[in-house]
Structures are given as C-alpha cells and as structure tokens.
User: Fold this.
Amino acid sequence: MRQTLYRQIYLSLLTLLFLSSCGNAQQTEATYFTDVMATHVPQDADAHALDVAFADVDEDGDLDVILALEADANRLYLNDGGGKLDWKKEVFDTAKHDTEHVRIADFDGDGHADVVFVAEDDQQHEYYLGNGDGSFSNVSDRLLAKSEGNGLDVGDVNGDGLPDIVVGNSGVSGQNFLWINDESRPGYFVDRTKESLPQVNDATQSIKLADLNGDGSLDMLVGNEVPPNRLLINDSEGNFTEAAEQLDLPVPLHTREVFTFDAEGDGDQDVVFANLTSNGGERDKDPRTRILINDGKANFTDETQTRMPENKFSTYAAAPIDIDHDGYMDLLLSAIAIPPFEALQVRAYKNDGKGMYTNVTQQFIPAETVGRSWGIAIGDLNGDGMDDAFIGGWGSQARLLLSKNVRSHSKD
Assistant:
C-alpha cells in the first residue's frame, strides 16, 4: 500500500513537472522579443545612457546607434547589419559632460546625418556634422547659447525645408530655446526664442514637435518636471502660442517624456505623458502613464482612467511600437520603483486597436530585461523588416530587444 502511494506521488510530481515545462515553453514561444544584450551590445553596466537615437551614419544601409551619456563622453555604436553593435570610440568630444538628450537630422543639407546633444549641469551642448563615413566634424561653436538642457527635438517649424532645433531648459532660467536653421547658411542657426516662444521659465524634461491640428505645420508639446505641461500651436511660420485650454490636465504631473502617435486609429496624433512620482526621492505625484485623445483639432482630453492600466512604477522613457505586428501601436515603458530607485522589468502595453491598453509584460517582454531603463529608440536594426528596441539605462546595462516574427491572434 505504501509503495503504491509513493508511486502515485511520484507520477503526480512527474506530471506537474511536465505541465510546468510545457507552460514555460509556451511562455517562451509567446515572447515577442529576444533580449540580445549579452551578444549584441557593448558591455558597460555602469554607464548612464540617458537617450538613444538611430541613423545610418556610415551609409552602409543599416541603422547605427548614438547614445547621450551622463558623466561620460557620448558614444557611437556601429551596426554590422545584423544588429550586432561595435563601439567606435573617440568619435565625439572625449570630455565627460552631463548630456541628457540626442537628436539626429541633416542640418546642413549635404545628405549626411548630423547630431546635436544637450547637457544639463555643465551646460556643454554639442553639435556635429556627419561626413557620411561614421566620422563627424565638431561644430559646437555654432550653437547659440548654453543652458541646463533637459529636453530636445528637431523639425522644420517654419516650412523652409530645413530642420530647426528646440531645446527644453530647466534651472533658475528655464526659458526654452527655439533656434531656426539659417536658410542662407544651412547648418547655422538664428535665435528666435524671444520672438516665437512664450516667455516662461519651465522645468522642461521633454519636448515633442508634431502636427497636432492637421494644418501641416509642427506644433509643440512640452513635458515639465514642475506642472503644468504645455501645448503650443504653430502659426505655420514657426511662431508658437500656448493653448492651455486645449490640454486637459486633471492631475499634477512630473513628466519625463512626451510623445505622439495615433492611438485609436482615427488619423490624428494623440499624446502620451510618461511620468515619475519623483526623481529618485520620496513619493510625490501619481506616476501613472497618461493618454490624451485628440479630437483632430488639437483639443486633448485625458482618457487615462478608461484606456490605460494603473501603475505605481516611475517611467523615465517610453515609446510607441507595434510589438505584435497587428497594425496597432503598442507601448514600451521603462520602469523604476521610486522610492527606492529600484531596477524593474521593462513594461509592454498592448493596444486593442481602439486605443485601449492592457499590460502584457509577462507575455511580451523577456524576464531578463531588467534595469534602471532610460532612453528608448525604435527601429529595424537587424534588417528583417520588424522594429527592434534599444533601451538605455542609468548605471545600468543598455539592452537590445530584437523583434520576433510572432503575430498576435487577437486582432478583430
């Protein structure tokens, strides 16, 4: 009798182990990314890579990676075409600055990718013209002012075909900058801050240029550490006027990233604010990621309560991406527990096609994709036609998630 009982227990345990292994296999198969940090990314677990941007800087047909680093020299990682990255050193100024953001555009119109960085504490902004072979010429002396730069975007705001620069500033003199590309000397700039921006000192952490009212010109969203965030409407000539009444802000936010995309498929740009409870201190504000829906005329209504999962983690970076290749824009979010500034798994929110989001992290994100994540860039790094994600980090190893050819079966 006892032997029979032991045999039954043994068989039951074997059954449980089999079912568990099947479950784990199914979970692995259902993961939409492969984390290739160990094999494809230069190893530096202590780096503070706060922002990331992609461009084919050596013009070999694949996207390379440029990193903005705090307390270190900025970096270029060259792509071998399959997503494996090699650190090409001493491309940018080797001095260690407090760089916060990076953007890429062809500022001088020569067909090569140029790069601009902004720095915070030491106020050493950097500007480089690309030579098309992975090398750059330092022309930082063309930038028009120093500042505590904490936000950055580029785009043609006055319709002359040349990319302009907007810098988000913080500190005692938190006036944001607008630098217009000089049509008579492309790659040089004219300061239009006083004439074309509201004169207000903000604690800006993120700026996004996008056509929000459908008139063909780039408007501006400003995400601030100290409320309120701002909506600025462009008159099509690069002059911006605040439209506070068009931006629904029901709760005070500490915003670290703002971006736009069409969340519910109606053809206009909606807004997401990624937020902190505090910058590494005690809990202060609600860090829930918020979504504001556009009526097509740049009137934004906060519909977070019905569309977005609740979260208690803080988010320093986020990005839209169609993770499951169903035609709808999902979201990737960095996640850090504040307090105590603890590294967490990167989060994934799935869009049902109508702008309703569900937390699908366990199904979509590899379990090892954990860090104090910061700065997310999206693009096809390995040439398979699917978007991948490079994720920076604060004192945390940067990671690369390669998209898998797995299609969601939940599309209506």
